[in-house]
What we know:
This protein has 108 residues and is an all-beta fold. The chain has no helices and seven strands. The strands form two sheets. It has a five-stranded mixed β-barrel.
Amino acid sequence: MKVFIENEAGSNQKNLYNEKTLEYRKTVTVSREYPYPYGFILDTISGDGDNLDCFITTDAKLETGQVCMSVSRLVSWSSLSQLGRQRRGMSLRMITIYWPVSMRNPSK
């Protein structure tokens, strides 16, 4: 599976990307630090129309903008119902354990 890393572990900066082109859009500050690297699984579609979100439980340093190719074991699913004006639908999140296969940065 290929995961695009949006947010690094230990950061309170949420980076927003166009999930189709992987183009950076903006950064916003959130109230808590991300406990693990967070991003989305490429070539997937969740109930809200976005890619499937994913936390990766690892001690490895995964940086914003990296695409990680990994063999992962599913630990948990969670879902959020989004009823705001801009979005409707169910947003699924996946939590995995990470075994690296390879990493690359598409901007390099």
